[in-house]
Specification:
mainly alpha; 3-stranded parallel beta sheet; 7 strands
């Protein structure tokens, strides 16, 4: 740490109390001078305070209040180490002075030393449980270290002691938001705004919770209030509701602490989905206050949202240089590095993150993902297990844990955790009410069983590989799946009946008197409970023979004297909203492959893709180079 760093000295998470509380032992003639110095510190007139306090400390080196306040003034000037030493000596001389511990904790919070700050604040509230600022500051440190339950308790206590204190109410709202208690959070923010209508951080945070609650009338009113307060204009739009967890937490933390209006505006614009518009105020924030971490974090997060992963790295690193223990931003940086394939660096960042905030489940989950990418599966499983232990509600990390266990051939544990996917938000819309019992592995001879598809097209195809095993057990199998796979499955598995997914789901079949029903993804737990149960089953998908001949003739056609080309089918991207990016490649990445001599590429991408093919032709000259052919898809 540098000997002198003004910005860090002033970047406290919470404002110190700066002065003795009523009842302090100030009956000697120096008492008035000490109170005068405290007032000067509050007014940021640090030189004047030091000038008053120095002779008092020289005359009475163990005068706790004077020693402590002298240290506080030095810290606020930027002399961190020397100032903290004085503050600590003051506490040693008066260990029962709660206000001193609150002051030191505030400085420690500003330095990102939340574990030590918590010790100070817990000691302070034990000495005097009626200090609202101590509870408010405890709320922040508990939340940043991932202890959300204790953060909620501390926030509630702060509001109980100071029900009209806007900062306490705002902090309470932040804690409720972190617990996904959005309706209560919106109410807390509204109460904070009522007490302080100009509290922009509360307005932006309330805006985020209202978007989560889909209360669009209130959203518009809050957006108008923010726009009026910032003196600018925020377009009427809904936020992107699929924001990454680390980013959401980091932005909430930043908005709650930042004082630079441009940084707050950037966060507000990003929060409501106007990512492009957030860049300019973030850059202005950096220009006006280059030592403020919030401008840098806002820029880095916004670039990440825009998919500009490489550009987001440096701003996030700069934010962490200024505020090294900002766990949410370190998690975001780790995820960015993972997204660009720099997995060893990602792991370094995430391991530091979990060291600073060991109770933050999302950091452990990101670490598990990074370890899995490097095939460090045991370490990945341990990290996912810790994330799942810290946040078991809704099985948020159970699915990732399951997939890692399956990759290690730990099928019993893997299938058990995989079943927890139905508790997650991502699977809620795939849950189907059925009057028929779910198959439990019982004898299927002479029974009718409905298997219904889940997840994406690739998953439907994969799990369809288990259907023959049900037929072999003597079952009459009914398969319900998406329309585009219906003909393929009926042709490939003539022993089953195929119906297209509809609503209600059983309306696809004229005789829905099933004995059992089961989602396709649950079949492996019964049919392959151990790794030894897997058996080679060969190809089970069968193309239409007539269509095969037609397409072969079309794609293998060549000019007289030329050899028939090698035909290669390609799919450019995944449509998966969560893991799609890492499963996709850009046209630029495909360029060297697409220009391979003697190869004809057939685009098998589903969805709208004509524009991409046109761009590839224009960019790579595919139409003018004789050995490269890009054909528009026949199954797109």
């Amino acid at each position: 740490m540098s000997k002198r760093n003004k910005q860090r000295g002033r970047n406290s998470q919470s404002a110190p109390m700066s002065q003795p509380r009523k009842g302090a032992n100030l009956r000697d003639p120096a008492a008035a001078k000490i109170l005068e110095a405290a007032t000067l510190i509050e007014a940021e007139q640090f030189d004047g305070a030091i000038e008053i306090l120095n002779p008092i400390v020289e005359a009475a080196p163990k005068r706790a209040e004077a020693v402590h306040l002298l240290g506080l003034a030095m810290v606020r000037q930027g002399y961190i180490q020397r100032g903290m030493a004085h503050m600590s000596r003051g506490i040693a001389f008066a260990p029962e002075a709660a206000w001193m511990r609150v002051n030191r904790a505030a400085i420690r919070q500003g330095q990102g030393e939340h574990t030590d700050a918590i010790k100070d604040l817990e000691a302070a509230v034990k000495i005097d449980p009626n200090v609202p600022s101590a509870w408010t500051n405890l709320t922040a440190s508990y939340a940043i270290t991932g202890d959300l339950d204790r953060a909620a308790e501390a926030a509630a206590r702060a509001v109980e002691l100071a029900p009209t204190n806007a900062s306490a109410l705002n902090s309470y709202g932040n804690t409720l938001t972190r617990q996904s208690r959005f309706a209560e959070a919106a109410d807390a923010y509204a109460r904070a705004i009522k007490q302080n209508p100009k509290m922009l951080s509360a307005r932006v945070s309330r805006l985020q919770t209202l978007l989560k609650l889909d209360r669009m009338d209130d959203v518009q009113a809050e957006m108008d209030a923010i726009a009026a307060q910032m003196g600018g204009h925020i377009a009427k739009t809904q936020a992107d509701k699929a924001n990454e967890e680390h980013i959401g937490m980091a932005m909430a933390s930043g908005i709650g602490d930042a004082v630079n209006p441009d940084a707050v505006l950037a966060m507000a614009l990003d929060a409501i989905g106007l990512h492009e518009q957030a860049v300019e105020p973030a850059l202005r924030a950096i220009e006006s206050a280059p030592d403020d971490p919030y401008g840098w974090s806002a820029l880095g997060v916004t670039y990440f949202r825009l998919g500009k992963h490489e550009e987001s790295i440096e701003p996030l690193q700069r934010a962490l240089e200024i505020r090294p223990k900002w766990a949410e931003i370190r998690g975001t940086l780790g995820n960015v590095l993972m997204a660009v394939g720099r997995h060893p660096e990602s792991i370094i960042e995430l391991e530091r993150g979990v060291e600073d905030a060991p109770k933050m489940a999302s950091l452990w989950a990101s670490l598990g993902a990074a370890k899995r990418e490097l095939r460090e599966l045991e370490a990945s499983e341990a990290a996912f297990a810790e994330a799942d232990r810290l946040a078991p509600e809704g099985a948020k990390y159970g699915l990732s844990l399951a997939l890692t266990q399956v990759r290690q051939k730990k099928l019993e544990e893997g299938w058990r955790n995989y079943e927890r996917r139905w508790q997650t938000l991502a699977f809620l819309d795939q849950t189907r009410p059925h009057k028929h019992p779910r198959w439990d592995g019982s004898d299927l001879r002479g029974k009718k069983i409905l298997v219904y598809a889940e997840q994406g097209v690739g998953d439907e195809i994969m799990f369809a590989g288990y259907l023959q095993a049900l037929i072999d057990q003597g079952a009459a199998v009914f398969l319900e799946l998406t329309n585009r796979l219906a003909a393929l499955m009926q042709r490939s598995l003539p022993g089953i009946q195929v119906g297209v997914s509809q609503n209600p789901p059983l309306s696809a079949f004229s005789s829905p008197d099933f004995d059992w029903q089961i989602p396709g993804g649950a079949l492996p737990s019964f049919l392959t409970p151990t790794f030894e149960d897997f058996r080679p089953r060969g190809a089970y998908l069968k193309a239409d023979p007539a269509e095969v001949e037609t397409l072969r003739a079309r794609y293998k056609a060549s000019a007289p004297g030329e050899a028939p080309p090698l035909v290669v089918g390609i799919s450019l991207r995944s449509g998966n909203p969560t893991g799609g990016k890492r499963r996709s490649a850009s046209l630029e990445q495909w360029a060297p492959i697409l220009q391979t001599p003697g190869v004809r590429f057939v685009n098998l991408q589903y969805g709208e893709c004509e524009q991409e093919i046109a761009e590839a032709r224009a960019a790579f000259g595919a139409d003018t180079v004789s050995y490269t052919h890009l054909t528009l898809p026949t199954i797109c």
